């Protein structure tokens, strides 16, 4: 049995989370710890070879199952999105409507839910984006949301990484989003002022390239983002 400092446990924990998220089947069940409770609750850590890592810590939670939305999820997706964005100062308050409009317009290319103990706790939407040079397919990420009580525990990252993997499998040239650069940089997005479409803020417009090595001109979100279609 080995004992580690909090900082070492944190670093080890980040690496475990990344490894687990790279498993697309999401069937692994692990012990989870919110970082802000680590200092008081860390008791002991047992590391048993490289393949099996068991953290014995105070707080537990399952890695979410990520699956495509079902018709019965639509109301739950609305509810999760609404409550997640409610306190966000940048929110337009209509993110749940954007998802419904994308679905009605049949351009919800990928809609994934995060499920813990059979409860929908998070959601992510991908829709087609349009490049000025007419290359395709490009995708737009968002909205993405996690129930407030379960934020900062890796659910959002699991949804985003799973979704990006799936659009890459669909042949995505790249993906755009409007969001906080601090957060999305970790998934390979970069600010891309030369591709900002009208109506989007340059300081929050981000791009991640997959098959494409470059793209010129604006890349636009579907019109369902901006109102009825
Ligand atoms: C954004 C959101 C989906 C992230 O999901 P999550 O499960 O909380 O995120 P994770 O646990 O995977 O990642 C947590 C990390 O992201 C950071 N983070 C979360 N939301 C962030 C945001 N809006 N801006 C900057 N950083 C953010 C946290 O500080 C934390 O960083 P750390 O690991 O260095 O401590 C979730 O916080 C949410 O639903 N927020 C409200 C809705 C929203 O803002 N959606 C995105 C709009 S662009």
Quick rundown:
The protein has 229 residues and is of the alpha+beta class. β5 and β6 form a beta hairpin.
Tell me about this structure.
- The protein is an alpha+beta fold.
- It is globular, with a radius of gyration of 19 Å.
- The longest helix is centred in the first third of the chain and has 16 residues.
- About 17% of the residues have low confidence.
- The chain starts with 5 loop residues before the first helix and ends in a 9-residue tail after the last strand.
- Helices cover 27% and strands 25% of the residues.
- Coenzyme A (COA) binds next to helix 3, strand 6, helix 5 and helix 6.
SSE map:
Blueprint lengths: L5 H16 L16 H4 L2 E5 L3 E5 L8 E4 L5 H12 L9 H10 L5 E7 L2 E13 L6 E9 L8 H15 L4 E5 L2 H4 L5 E2 L13 E5 L9 E2 L9
Parallel strand pairs: 6-7
Antiparallel strand pairs: 1-2, 3-4, 4-5, 5-6, 5-10, 7-9, 8-9
The chain binds coenzyme A (COA).
The site of coenzyme A (COA) has 17 residues, from α3, β6, α5 and α6.
Give the C-alpha Rg. 19 Å
Output the number of helix runs.
6
Share of helical residues: 25-40%
CATH superfamily of the largest domain: Gcn5-related N-acetyltransferase (GNAT)
CATH third-level topology of the largest domain: Aminopeptidase
The CATH architecture designation of the largest domain is 3-Layer(aba) Sandwich
Question: Tally of extended strands?
Answer: 10
Number of domains: 2
Instruction: Quickly name the level 1 CATH class of the largest domain.
Output: Alpha Beta
Distance between the termini: 61 Å
Uncertain runs are: 22-60
Q: What ligand species are in this complex?
A: coenzyme A
Structural class: alpha+beta
């Amino acid at each position: 049995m080995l004992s580690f400092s909090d900082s070492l446990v944190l670093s080890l924990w980040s690496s475990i989370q990344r490894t687990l998220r790279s498993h697309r089947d999401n069937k692994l069940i692990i012990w989870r710890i919110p970082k802000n409770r680590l200092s008081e609750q860390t008791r002991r850590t047992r590391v048993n070879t490289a393949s099996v890592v068991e953290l014995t810590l105070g707080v537990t939670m399952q890695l979410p199952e990520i699956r495509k939305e079902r018709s019965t999820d639509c109301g739950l997706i609305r509810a999760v999105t609404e409550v997640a964005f409610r306190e966000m100062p940048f929110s337009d308050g209509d993110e749940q409507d954007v998802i419904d409009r994308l679905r009605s317009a049949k351009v919800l290319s990928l809609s994934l839910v995060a499920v813990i103990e059979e409860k929908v706790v998070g959601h992510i939407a991908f829709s087609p984006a349009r490049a000025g040079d007419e290359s395709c397919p490009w995708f737009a990420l968002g909205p993405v949301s996690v129930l407030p009580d379960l934020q900062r525990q890796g659910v959002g990252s699991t949804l985003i990484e799973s979704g990006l993997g799936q659009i890459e499998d669909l042949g995505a040239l790249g993906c755009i989003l409007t969001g906080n650069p601090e957060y999305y940089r970790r998934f390979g997005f970069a600010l891309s002022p030369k591709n900002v479409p009208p109506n989007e803020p340059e300081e929050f417009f981000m791009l991640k390239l997959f098959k494409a090595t470059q793209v010129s001109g604006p890349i636009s979100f579907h019109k369902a983002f901006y109102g009825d279609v």
